[in-house]
Amino acid sequence: MRIDIEAYLDGLRFSVEPATAGLEEAMRYSLLAGGKRIRPVLALATAHAIGMQTEAVLPLAGALELIHTYSLIHDDLPAMDDDSLRRGRPTCHVRYGEAIAILAGDALYAEAIRLVLAEQRGDPARIIACLAELTAASGVQGMVGGQYIDVSGVVEEDGAELRRLHELKTGRLIGAAIECVLLLADEHTRSTTLPDFRAFATELGVLFQIVDDILDVTGTDVALGKPQGSDERHGKVTYVSRYGLEGARAMAAESHRNARAALDRAASGKALELAQITDFIATRTS
Amino acid sequence: MRIDIEAYLDGLRFSVEPATAGLEEAMRYSLLAGGKRIRPVLALATAHAIGMQTEAVLPLAGALELIHTYSLIHDDLPAMDDDSLRRGRPTCHVRYGEAIAILAGDALYAEAIRLVLAEQRGDPARIIACLAELTAASGVQGMVGGQYIDVSGVVEEDGAELRRLHELKTGRLIGAAIECVLLLADEHTRSTTLPDFRAFATELGVLFQIVDDILDVTGTDVALGKPQGSDERHGKVTYVSRYGLEGARAMAAESHRNARAALDRAASGKALELAQITDFIATRTS
Lengths: 286, 286
Description:
Two copies of one chain form a homodimer.
Chain A: H1 2-11, H2 21-31, H3 38-49, H4 58-76, E1 85-86, E2 89-90, H5 92-96, H6 98-119, H7 124-138, H8 143-152, H9 159-184, H10 187-218, H11 221-224, H12 230-233, H13 239-267, H14 272-283
Antiparallel strand pairs in A: 1-2
Helix pairs in contact in A: 1-4, 2-6, 3-4, 3-9, 3-14, 4-6, 4-9, 7-9, 8-9, 9-10, 10-13, 10-14, 13-14
């Protein structure tokens, strides 16, 4: 699935005139830096689990990665996390300057929504439902809201607030990768599977974040493609700082079991790819 | 019309939990700072010109102002134009800090698209066409692309490039305020009036920018709500720096005549409000 996604992302063009070619270059620099592509892979695997073809959801899958890339570019800015390395390369603002990095992020979001509007096939009413989920997951009640909570430092040593922060910051878009596909599906498939897939998506988002926090402590710079230990340097409350390394590992194991159980309810044996991705997210080293 | 728009914008809420209330506050600080509301007023006036009611396009009108506000917040950032005053008040980053200003802009865009998806009534296929125009007007081939050309300084002393910069940076969204309404209208109205309305919108965008450049030289800080002469300080190529004040005034007068002529072709006498807005844009002092 990743090869389909890489080819699709590589084929995307945003600029139609020389004057904006430099903006497209900055967008593609960050977009094609070789991330794990977890969100688009989840979208494709969800499609396969309910009998849809790869081609039927590629624009949505691409949009998910454009949105994720935009969030990384803005999160890395000096005013935010001030990170200089991402996916093993200089961050967008280090390479192109802050102004262009801000605009590259802005543009990636606009072009993500536009990609779905222009390329995604399906009943118009279903596409609107899909986009409503995608924009909710990336707005105040999603990704941007979560990043706000993160940078504003309102989370103290409170486990519930920490979980909520990550539900918004990463969980909602990971959830949208799954839910948006179901929103494009036929009425019967959607109504019978949506609640269980939602439970799976929520648990997967939590699992993703716990493992992310663990890797920030135990990973190496080379494997992560960014400096290890950056959460601690930024004074962030994480699952590790809150529950200790062993506590976080136990929570990850429980979250992994919960996610697999929810997946079994959602797709009972027909979702091998999603099961594999769940295991990958639980055991990944970068 | 402005009173309808102010009431609608004032009624918008973005945050549903205490943790993100501060983000909503920053969004509303910039959104409700009392701009001229030219884009939503244009949308409402266009709707009236083709027989649609105010209520039928308020979500779209609101979205246009959210997008415009987001672009102002990001354009004012230290890495961009580094402006500290906007609409007579400290800019968003001066008031709330850079990180929150970046996120407030990001969030306003997501919530703008979501507003149309959630609230705009109409045939789903027409809403998709409307949103496709809105996102095109605000992406690489529109507002963000124009801002990129502006900050990257690729425009030298070339009149055609200058006009193109402003077509993208401000013209496309001003055009979208008119075109998006037509895209929501019935097939007959749309097909018979779209080309003439497009010509009107293009000319109106040019007129707006020429007058903006003139006011940057002739206006006062108090009337403008921002420091006068900021274009010259930033070394920007403007209609005034390129053609002189008298040359720019002659171009504005010609553009005003062209816009009124195009409007007469589009709506032959049935668009009094749009004619008034055109005259206001040509003669405004702030």
